[in-house]
């Protein structure tokens, strides 16, 4: 390239960025065919252009310091619906219009469900078991429950396997469900040992009601489940199933998975 | 709430800022110009920061006008680099390198560059106004035509020619003075 070429960086930049007119482009291409030095210069600048990497860290740092405030995300229209939804959710959580409504009162949510805990003793160690967990022979379990309610309440706890439904508390079919102390954590006396080597799924069912129930009443309310015993879904802990038309106000389900 | 937070997270990740977009397209030429004018890596980093700040402040004016954006980026790069040379008193070293690469800068002295020539050029550059200094740089260091300079600076060609004549006259006077 000679000085008479007058092919400046600015001219080449316009060429590389596609800003030139058709005539200018044609003239430049003609010149490049004749001038090897200019062709090399253009190629060198093209390589620089392709190799350049944006210093993103520097840009972000300067953006925080000098970026225009009008770029705030809250000024973008599409955030407002999300923001409104989030605000409504927070208000609902804080205000909680269903708070304090019991089952007989006006309210959608209803009373709080009771809780059922299953403590597992295995090889001398005691811990809280999870519904769906695998149980082995020699494992011992103990049960505890609590129902936060202001009214009189009763519980009937049963064991169900593929063949039959067996009452655990109370222990016989002739007794009615046991009256329990509301708002108190109650541990059932005694423990159960897995003494046989069964396989498959078993269930512990706790029927909570506000009136004393017989075994037959409880059995009927669980009837749709007892027709055909299929392996149940595995909930994380206890499965709460409010029975709409049954005398059981709540049924808690705890699944025992047996065998290896 | 979760949707909102997720949206916030991804939106911040995805959208490049306008300056980042400009840099991805024109960044190479900013860096090249800084390197050409300053010739010192430590100064180049500082100059790039100043240029980015200027871009943040003024990029809205040039949105959607690529031809003007190129001129604007050339202008702010040149101005910041020249100011930085003044601030750090680096005219002597830079002027020497310029003269070695572009001896046509001073037509009265096409032969070898002496220490006296350098001092004269340094003095000359320091006395020039900012716009004149830029025009001299574009013409003699970047090799741009008068038309290109006029288009880029958004001034008339006559004004460019007049400024260059003034520089040459001034330079001749300095070199010819005893």
How are the SSEs placed, and which strands pair?
The complex is a heterodimer of chains A (260) and B (178).
Chain A: H1 9-16, H2 22-34, H3 36-51, H4 56-66, H5 79-95, E1 115-122, E2 125-128, E3 134-135, E4 140-146, E5 153-160, E6 165-169, E7 178-180, E8 186-187, E9 192-193, E10 200-209, H6 215-221, H7 223-226, E11 239-241, E12 250-258
Parallel strand pairs in A: 3-12
Antiparallel strand pairs in A: 1-2, 1-4, 4-8, 4-9, 5-6, 5-7, 5-10, 10-12, 11-12
Helix pairs in contact in A: 2-3
Chain B: H1 2-14, H2 18-38, H3 41-58, H4 66-87, H5 91-101, H6 115-127, H7 130-141, H8 146-153, H9 157-176
Order of helices and strands of chain B: HHHHHHHHH
Quaternary organization: heterodimer
* Count of distinct structural domains of chain A: 2
The helix-strand sequence of chain A is HHHHHEEEEEEEEEEHHEE
Residue share in helices of chain B? over 70%
How many beta-strand elements of chain B? 0
- Low-pLDDT residue intervals, each spanning 5 or more residues of chain A: 100-108, 226-237
Low-confidence stretches of chain B: none
Determine the mean pLDDT of chain B. Answer: 79
CATH superfamily of the largest domain in chain B: Winged helix-like DNA-binding domain superfamily/Winged helix DNA-binding domain
Task: Report the structural category of chain B.
Answer: mainly alpha
Structural class of chain A: alpha+beta
Radius of gyration over C-alpha positions of chain B, nearest whole angstrom: 20 Å
Backbone shape of chain A: elongated
CATH class of the largest domain in chain A: Mainly Beta
Question: Biggest interface pair, residues each?
Answer: A-B, 35 and 40 residues
> Rough shape of chain B?
elongated
The overall pLDDT average of chain A reads 76
Distance between the termini of chain B: 80 Å
Q: Tell me the domain tally of chain B.
A: 2
CATH class of the largest domain in chain B: Mainly Alpha
């Amino acid at each position: 390239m000679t000085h008479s070429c007058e092919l400046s960086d600015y001219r080449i930049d316009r060429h590389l960025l596609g800003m030139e007119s058709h005539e200018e482009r044609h003239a430049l291409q003609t010149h490049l065919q004749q001038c090897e030095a200019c062709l090399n210069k253009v190629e060198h600048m093209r390589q620089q252009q392709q190799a350049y990497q944006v210093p993103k860290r520097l840009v972000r740092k300067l953006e925080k310091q000098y970026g225009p405030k009008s770029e705030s995300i809250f000024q973008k229209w599409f955030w407002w619906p999300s923001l409104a939804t989030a605000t409504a959710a927070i208000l609902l959580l804080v205000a909680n219009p269903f708070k304090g409504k019991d089952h007989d009162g006006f309210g959608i949510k209803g009373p709080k469900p009771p809780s059922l805990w299953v403590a597992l003793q295995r090889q001398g160690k005691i811990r809280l078991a999870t519904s769906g967990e695998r149980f082995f022979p020699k494992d011992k379990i103990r049960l505890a429950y609590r129902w936060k309610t202001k009214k009189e309440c009763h519980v009937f706890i049963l064991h169900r396997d593929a063949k039959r439904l067996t009452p655990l508390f109370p222990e016989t079919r002739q007794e009615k469900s046991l009256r329990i102390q509301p708002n108190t954590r109650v541990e059932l006396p005694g423990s159960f040992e897995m003494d046989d080597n069964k396989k498959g799924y078993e269930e512990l069912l706790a029927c909570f009601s506000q009136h004393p129930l017989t075994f037959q009443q409880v059995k009927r309310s669980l009837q749709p489940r007892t027709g055909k015993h299929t392996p149940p879904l595995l909930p994380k802990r206890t499965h709460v199933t409010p029975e709409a038309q049954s005398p059981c106000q709540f049924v808690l389900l705890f699944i025992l998975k047996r065998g290896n | 709430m979760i949707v909102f937070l997720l949206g916030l997270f991804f939106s911040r990740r995805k959208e490049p800022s306008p300056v980042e977009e400009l840099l991805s397209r024109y960044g190479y030429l900013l860096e090249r110009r800084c390197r050409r004018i300053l010739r010192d890596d430590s100064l180049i980093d500082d100059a790039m920061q100043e240029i980015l700040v200027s871009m943040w402040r003024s990029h809205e004016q040039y949105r959607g006008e690529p031809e003007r954006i190129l001129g604007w980026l050339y202008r702010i790069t040149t101005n910041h680099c020249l100011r930085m040379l003044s601030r750090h008193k680096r005219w002597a070293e830079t002027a020497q390198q310029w003269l070695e690469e572009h001896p046509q800068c001073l037509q009265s002295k096409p032969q070898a560059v002496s220490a006296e020539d350098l001092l004269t050029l340094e003095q000359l550059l320091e006395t020039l106004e900012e716009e004149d200094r830029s025009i001299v740089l574009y013409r003699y260091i970047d090799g741009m035509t008068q038309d290109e300079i006029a288009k880029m600076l958004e001034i008339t060609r006559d004004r460019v020619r007049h400024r260059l004549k003034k520089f040459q006259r001034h330079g001749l006077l300095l070199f010819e003075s005893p």
